[in-house]
Amino acid sequence: HEFVRRSREVNARGIHYLRAHLEKRGLKVTPSWGNFVLVDLGRPAMPVYDGLLRRGVIVRPMGGYGLPNSLRITVGTTEELHHLAKALDSLILGEGFGSTGGGAA
Q1: Counted domains in the chain
Q2: In what order do the strands lie in the sheet with 70-74?
Q3: Element at 103 (helix H, strand E)
Q4: Series of mean pLDDT values for 10-residue runs along the chain (105 residues)
């Protein structure tokens, strides 16, 4: 039972980190009690999905579920979450959605 308790704590911290990071950038995050967040980018998600993929970050586009502006982001390790945050910031704040970014974030 200790493993389950620790896993829930790690997941809760990850959800909190993701939510705070995304909302700070003006993105809408749907409340979640699972191991992922649903984020509405307010614009088509596929360019962001493609940019994240080029940076080694795998998320799930939600267009097939009628949410073309949204991505599902699964909670990972602290290192993975920081990599995601940096890659996402480079796309939405800096380099633009069409940029390859010159390598991994």
Answers
A1: 1
A2: 28-30, 36-40, 70-74, 60-61
A3: none
A4: 91 94 95 92 96 97 98 94 95 61 36
In a domain, 6, yes or no: yes
The answer to whether the predicted template modeling score (pTM) of the entire model surpasses 0.85 is: no
Question: Would you call 34 exposed, middle or buried from its count of C-beta atoms within 10 A (0-12, 13-18, 19+)?
Answer: exposed
In angstroms, the CA 37 to CA 14 distance is 10
How far is Cα 60 from Cα 56, in angstroms, rounded to an integer? 13
Residue 21 resides in a domain: yes
What are the tokens at 2?
């200790």
Where is 86: in which H helix or E strand?
helix 78-89
Instruction: With respect to residue 73, please indicate whether it lies within any of the assigned structural domains.
Output: yes
Classify residue 104: in a domain, yes or no.
Answer: no
